[in-house]
Prior knowledge:
By secondary structure, this protein is α+β, with helices and mostly antiparallel strands. Mean pLDDT is 92; it is low at 1-23.
Amino acid sequence: MKQFSRMAALLAGASVLxxxxxxxxxxxxHLPYPETARGEVVDNYFGTEVPDPYRWLEDDNSEATAxxxxxxxxxxxxxxxxIPFRNAIRERLTQLWNYPKEGAPSKHxxxxxxxxxxxxxxxxxxxxxxxxxxxxxxxxxxxxxxxDGTVALSAVSFSKNGRYFAYAAxxxxxxxxxxxxxxxxxxxxxxxxxxWVKFSGAVWAPDSKGFYYSAxxxxxxxxxxxxxxxxxxxxxxxxxxxxxxxxxxxxxxxxLRYFSAWPSEDGKWLFVIASEGTSGxxxxxxxxxxxxxxxxxAGFDHDYAPVDCKEDNLYFVTNEGASNxxxxxxxxxxxxxxxxxxxxxxxxxxxxVGTAGGYLFASYLQDAQNQVVQYDYDGRLVREIVLPAIxxxxxxxxxxxxxxxxxxxxxxxxxxxxxxxxxxxxxxTLYKSPEVAFDPALFVTEQVFYPSxxxxxxxxxxxxxxxxxxxxxxxxxxxxxxxFQINLTPGFNPSALMFVEQGGxxxxxxxxxxxxxxxxxxxxxxxxxxxxxxxxxIAAAEYLIAQKYTSSERLAINGGSNGGLLVGACExxxxxxxxxxxxxxxxxxxxxxxxxxxxxxxxxxxxSSDNEEQFPYIYKYSPLHNIKEGVKYPATLVMTADHDDRVxxxxxxxxxxxxxxxxxxxxxVLIRIxxxxxxxxxxxxxxxxxxxxxxxxxxxxxxGVPYRPVGE
Length: 712
């Protein structure tokens, strides 16, 4: 407690400094931007001619692109290296990241498996113990799979009998993975090896003799940028080569659909879940004794997510006729018989359903915060589970024979804490609580609701110091996403904590396009309604300014992937509203996104420039195409990675080049291009810290507030 008291005094000093700012901060001049050749490419979309002068930057294998990347990185590094507190930020981030992290254990065979990171390991280590709470042993250390920690586990699964463990390994952040298998008795790797897998892991057959997986044919060219077509489902028998794997399902008529297999635990049924994009599914099924699949739940207008299969009944979560989702079951021997097990909640979103110990555990979202309810398989209420704190919950799932399970609970000021849950009594007891070098009592997270442009009330979490003054002088970072049914719930982020230590205000807006309030909330922010998302984000910024949390001169905005699109669109629509814009791996070219890798799958969310009715509204907000000459844009640090095969780096390359070409103000427009990294998943701790240090150094420098190390 003494160290917390001392830190409180130190942070109070830091807070005062951050709030008052420093008008005498050294102004840093960036090197001249690289000369970026402008081509003569012009596309015609239904009579509208659209120039694309940087089309050549889409070729990520060309020498010209490589030279441009090197030149841009040199300009960015020169600028960042001049920021006097860059290293101090990196040191503090390292301190905040450096605490032991342990995941919730799950039982497989005679062992309980869990992830552990001693603090700064690039990848968390999979450990195991025969008794929870006792010292365990290392089972698989992903850090040994590469010298620099850039190989990560993207999906893992155990065979039903616990004898075998399959993992999908991704190199340098790529979506392509390789599946390997380990014998849990000997802790050795078998000869099994599966290549050219994407968006799939190993799904074990109930007899533990093999597994199902989904893969593409090996690409002939453009491994990281070529469009992926004709995904197929295979069965792999242990001990045999991939060339001997049995084809389970393919669809030659629909090259852009993707599929995954899902077997029932009793071995009687095999399901294939088909998707045409990021939302909307169809479920096919057959008995394992048969060869032909039949359509069980048809069409792609709704979501169908399998939960369990018991006594020839498939339990599934769906939004068909239920915007907030419901759990239903369908009789496989009489498909016309569909029953509701858990009805739709009138307000709260049914985010998912897990199973363990013969019960169903429904996870709800109420105003972007988790609640968990336990039911029996007929939908009878067992109990509303009392959680130890408000936040985001994970882990309410297990095996039929389990009598207890372990779950995690985290929020903006508390890292993931693990609890043991007794399924019979409903009692939660503390299992593991991490210790971080800060005092959470100094901070507060509040939830506010603000009006968007059309009057819609939008929730936002605001994390700040309790002693902060609402005087309009505070540094503020506004984060958002707004798409693909993705919900932003409270989670622990050491980088954000460092920011609020300095007197900053960290804000997360729950924009339309997510599904915080069900499918209606999602649909209000997709396709022709996408502008609502940008309006929500702009309104959040205006609210923070009006309520004196911050000012335009101290406000930064940040988001990644679809959130990078959000930042880019809001920057070009309202450049006057922010001091700093920080788009990460953003979708910036809305007219060509669907031509690369898996981008076609996003057309159900965005629409497509190939569609005459959809082209106008996409073109109207596409960040790349709405940058205008003569405009003073905010300080901008575009961030991307050379191995991003989800949102290819050409989006960021072209956006940065056009922004540099058009910038009429003095604020820098830089691009940080990371090597041996991808879209973000599995990024090594060292790279995460380096990226965060650069981002926050750029932020503080360009709002005119110096970072002051804790302790000064």
